[in-house]
Specification:
By secondary structure, the chain is mainly alpha-helical. The protein has 21 helices and no strands. It has a single domain (19-239, 265-466), classed as Growth Hormone, Chain: A (Up-down Bundle), CATH 1.20.1250.20. The chain is 78% helix and 0% strand. Helix 14 (275-296) packs across helix 20 (401-453), helix 16 packs across helix 19 (367-394) and helix 18 (340-364) packs antiparallel against helix 19. It is globular and about 65 Å long. The chain starts with 18 loop residues before the first helix and ends with a helix. The model is unreliable at 1-16 (pLDDT under 50).
Length: 468
């Protein structure tokens, strides 16, 4: 390893620029980085199970409470209403009070709310608890992606954030497996009770995940940032059995730029520096999530309506979700080899085509075609998710990164709460073909926004991107 500097010989100097960035970016990726990745990704995974669960239990809930398709769609949307509030709040709170504390609070909220869902005596109460569950989930997702992007150096950031998002399809598949085995012997209430247990993972997060030194530095808490960096660097050295680390990366002019003062983080999203990026990423999240959740929330129910038994519809939905695993792995490779922008556009257009073909297969009743088109659809759509979570935090400066990620996610959740409801309205009039055509058009709109307004962020430090 070149260089003779110890990790502790450079003190903070705001006039010189981001010391945290210079020191974090020069670190080789180590076992300590991978431990942080795994803990954050596992928390993301547990949250994703709760998010995906409605796809598999909505049919059972609909039957127990005697709901119409419109009422079932409204119930499915309640968690997304909560996610709008949670995502918007979490970004502002994480930029004000820190990433780690908000991350922990989010886990407490979704764990308690999942248990409460299992106790709901009527559909109205269940809707309230699903709203609270959505608040917790909405808080967790943008903070997780912000934390990950601020710990991993630019040379590996895209791959690790994309892989973290890969725990979402794994969570979706796990939700299906839990539903398949639990629903065969118990009911949907037991499913929600079981899903409250992973919230105890909070204790692991509290013990092993540090606060972001980039955020501490920006907040003016230099001594705390220095302590976190000191510990971080020592663990990297111990993990890789190094005696020294390279010199901090002061070669980039953006890292030499004095740190920007703290400002109103929401208004900063509309500054000349961020305006076009905000318009692009808000539109991308809105149309992508409107299409995705409009389709996936109803997959099991649509199959039941086409004549498949409950357990068989759940099994088929889990089966086609397996396409998401190679999808996010491919996207995690392409975001570093090809770039964020082209990978995102390709995933969206591929998803649009396969969603349309899936709708045709569902109408025809050909099971082989249904499974094949479903696997391909999930391949592209979960690849899309991997790029979304990689791309979003890279577009904003440290002082507004969580706010930017949170509000993009919040706008997306507006799309995700509208999606299931729109499907409930469209289905009786246009049938399943119309539902999947609407979803495909949403993905085309999202791809157009990225093509015309998106920037490429591959291989650049976060501070370089925010200095544009």
């Amino acid at each position: 390893m070149d260089g003779t500097a110890t990790p502790f010989d450079t003190k903070f100097d705001a006039a010189r620029g981001s010391q945290a960035a210079a020191r974090l970016e020069r670190l080789p990726v180590s076992g300590y980085h991978r431990m942080i990745f795994f803990i954050i990704a596992l928390a993301f995974f547990f949250d994703s199970i709760d998010l995906g669960m409605m796809t598999f239990v909505l049919g059972s809930i609909k039957t127990e409470f005697g709901l119409s398709t419109q009422a079932a769609g409204a119930l499915a949307s309640m968690s997304f209403v909560g996610m709008v509030l949670g995502a918007a709040m979490s970004g502002l709170l994480a930029d004000r009070f820190g990433r780690k504390s908000v991350f922990q609070v989010s886990m407490i909220i979704w764990g308690i709310s999942s248990y409460l869902c299992s106790t709901a005596p009527d559909v109205t109460t269940l809707g309230v608890y699903r709203f609270l569950l959505g608040v917790g989930m909405g808080m967790e997702f943008p903070v997780a992606q912000t934390l990950m992007s601020e710990f991993i150096p630019a040379k590996a950031r895209g791959r690790y954030v994309a892989l973290m998002d890969g725990f979402w399809p794994l969570g979706f598949i796990c939700a299906g497996l839990v539903s398949y085995f639990v629903l065969s012997s118990y009911n949907w209430r037991t499913v929600f009770a079981v899903l409250a247990v992973p919230a105890l993972f909070l204790l692991v997060v509290r013990r092993f995940i540090p606060e972001s030194p980039r955020w501490l530095e920006h907040a003016g808490r230099q001594q705390e940032a220095e302590a976190v960096l000191h510990k971080f660097e020592s663990k990297v050295m111990r993990s890789l059995k190094l005696n020294s680390l390279p010199e901090p990366l002061w070669s980039s002019s953006s890292l030499l730029t004095p740190l920007a003062p703290r400002s109103n983080s929401f208004m900063a999203l509309w500054s000349p520096q961020h305006r076009s990026r905000t318009i692009m990423i808000w539109g991308l999240w809105f149309f992508a999530l409107l299409g995705f959740y409009g389709l996936t929330t109803w997959l099991g129910t649509l199959l039941q309506q086409a004549g498949f038994a409950v357990t068989k519809s759940v099994l088929y939905t889990v089966l086609i979700s397996l396409g998401g695993i190679p999808g996010f792995l491919t996207a995690a490779w392409l975001v570093e080899k090809w770039g964020r922008k082209p990978t995102c556009i390709a995933a969206l257009l591929g998803g649009a085509l396969m969603a349309y073909l899936y709708g045709k297969s569902a109408m025809s009743g050909h099971e082989n075609a249904l499974i094949a088109s479903g696997l391909c659809m999930q391949f592209f759509l979960f690849g899309m998710w991997a790029v979304l979570y990689t791309y979003t935090p890279e577009l904003y400066a440290t002082g507004v990164r969580a706010t930017g990620s949170g509000f993009a996610s919040a706008v997306g959740r507006i799309g995700s709460l509208l999606g299931p409801y729109i499907v409930g309205v469209v289905l009786p009039s246009w049938g399943q073909g119309g539902v999947f055509t609407v979803g495909a058009l949403c993905f085309v709109m999202a791809a157009a926004l990225v093509f015309f307004l998106g920037i490429e962020t591959r291989g650049m430090a976060l501070e370089e991107l925010s200095a544009d």
